[in-house]
Amino acid sequence: MTALRPLAFACALVLPTVAAAQTTITVYTSQPQDQMAQVVAAFNADHPEITVEIFRSGTTELMAKLAAEFAAGSSPSDVLLIADAVAMSQLKEDGRLLAYTDAPVKDVPPALVDPDMTYFGTKLITTGIVYNTMLVQTPPKSWADLAQPEVAKSLIMPSPLYSGAAAIHVGTMVAQPAFGWDWYETLAKEGAVAGQGNGTVIEAVARGEKAYGVIVEYMAMNAKKKGSPVDFVWPEDGVSVISQPVAILKDSDAVAAAKTFVDWQLSRKAQEQSVAQGYFPVLSGLAAPEGYPSADRLTILEADPAKMRAEDQANKEEFAAIYGG
């Protein structure tokens, strides 16, 4: 709510539009801050009447912040844009999300739309393997390859204690009969480590501190595009997928403006920007970014969101027991 805007957080990014802006919304997001600056600029080119304030952090920290705010009475957030449909479904179950029944979703795959119209996927984000091209001569082809001792000893992964994408990936991998917790224990035994979010992974691999990393594809591909000595593998045994859903908080005091932001996120213009930022689009008729496979060529690892939500805390505790936290 506008009366409680977060102004004192070190990672808050405030992007005012015009001096005479009529409405202000606050967006809590896990999307990288530089990308969100581009998103807000493009949105304001179409809607200069709406000022957008951004608070950016990892999904797990955002959820903890929201929980604390709800416990105190209310949250200043109007819109959520987070890389975790499981967390979003929990907010829906808790009655925190607004049903937006008229959202423009006719061109969005039904699997990415909440049946009750409280949240909507805006991207397809896959998790795979990044490697340093100066340190690796034969890239891994599969998740199974990471368990090789010479690979695992130089492997870093994001932690589900910080990253929503990592929580989805861990929940997906431990549900696979071929992997499970035994696989994670093997990786740790051979020297693999966990950082915080995906940002710590790409930094370590790009600098050559680690040769391999588990990461969301756009961070690796964007780093490669900018000249970092890295490349990315979509493992042949499958990838986990997140949809970065967008939703409006039920207690928002700027619902009309929040709906305008959601509408724009689901528009072709926003999807074209997503492709330029390195994401698979969710709208039909748009090609994947250069260097990416087409989405229909990916092998998607099966995942049960309800089961993942039920086991989320236990998964985080088990991960912390293996890798620390």
From TrEMBL:
Name of this chain's protein: ABC transporter substrate-binding protein
Q: Which residues bind Fe cation?
A: 218
Q: Where is the signal peptide?
A: 1-21
Q: Which PANTHER family match?
A: SLL0237 PROTEIN, THIAMINE-BINDING PERIPLASMIC PROTEIN-RELATED
| Record carries keyword Hydrolase | no
Statement: the UniProt record of this protein carries the keyword Mitochondrion: no
Report a single Gene Ontology molecular function.
metal ion binding
Question: Mind listing the UniProt keywords for this protein, alphabetically?
Answer: Iron, Metal-binding, Signal
